[in-house]
Design goal:
The protein is α+β, with helices and mostly antiparallel strands and about 230 residues long. Strands 1, 2, 5 and 8 form a four-stranded mixed sheet that branches. Strands 4-3-6-7 form a four-stranded antiparallel sheet, with no helix packed on it. α1 packs antiparallel against α6 and α4 packs antiparallel against α6. It is flat, with a radius of gyration of 27 Å. The two termini are about 45 Å apart.
């Protein structure tokens, strides 16, 4: 959605830029963004704001842009901006399973490594008979180093008085500026927080039920099993 919006925005802005420049309205033209990467290289919210800015500039000067950019084209552009805005944040649902995906990714190399070891054994006869061939095959069996540096804070909350999980606690990492709410299983994963010392705060029904100084280890899953009263 972001790529598609970036293409639409940059295409229309490019047409408008030329039309406005030809009319001598350089100051207005320079308010537009004519490269798709201007939109796709920024955060989703910034992409939306940038697209809306260009749309509004073009709409304000619509009569200067005819016939290259029409009001109907701008209406479709606005619909695309609105649609993309509604998509923002949907990737969070993917992030929730990132720890599982990371483990699966690492495990996926096991059969590859086994096959490579077998190839190396089969290649041994060529070490003397065809050294050049042997060296080229051996070089191709080297697996590039793949470093997985995802950092997660996994929280599980239990009411210690009744031994039940607690749903709906809003947790905040002060320094990392990450927030999230425990689900029906009393669980929450905050993905890619800043490593180091932080303050973890839990609020339920407007009341602070958890407040601790914690340390987040980089490139690993940081598990916090929390018990609260009440």
């Amino acid at each position: 959605g972001k790529i598609a919006l970036g293409e639409t925005a940059s295409t229309l802005s490019g047409l408008a830029y030329v039309a406005l420049t030809d009319l001598g309205k350089i100051d207005v033209a320079e308010q537009l963004h004519i490269n798709a990467t201007d939109f796709t290289s920024v955060a989703d919210s910034d992409c939306t704001a940038l697209s809306q800015n260009d749309h509004d500039v073009m709409l304000a000067h619509k009569t200067d842009l005819l016939p290259d950019v029409t009001e109907l084209m701008l209406t479709d552009f606005q619909d695309e901006i609105t649609t993309f805005s509604g998509l923002q944040g949907t990737s969070d649902s993917v992030h929730e399973v990132s720890p599982t995906l990371t483990k699966a990714f690492v495990e996926s190399f096991r059969p590859v490594r086994k096959i490579i070891e077998q190839i190396k054994l089969l290649m041994k006869p060529y070490k003397k008979s065809n050294k050049d061939f042997y060296d080229r095959v051996m070089a191709s069996t080297i697996i590039p180093a793949v470093n997985v540096h995802h950092t997660f804070v996994n929280i599980t909350v239990v009411n210690k008085n009744v031994s039940k999980v607690v749903e709906g606690i809003l947790f905040t990492l002060t320094n990392a500026k990450k927030t999230g709410t425990t689900d029906w299983e009393g669980k929450l994963t905050l993905d890619k927080p800043r490593a180091g010392k932080d303050i973890l705060t839990g609020v339920l029904d407007g009341k602070v039920v958890y407040l601790r100084h914690i340390e987040i280890k980089r490139g690993r899953e940081n598990d916090f099993d929390i018990e609260i009263d009440g």
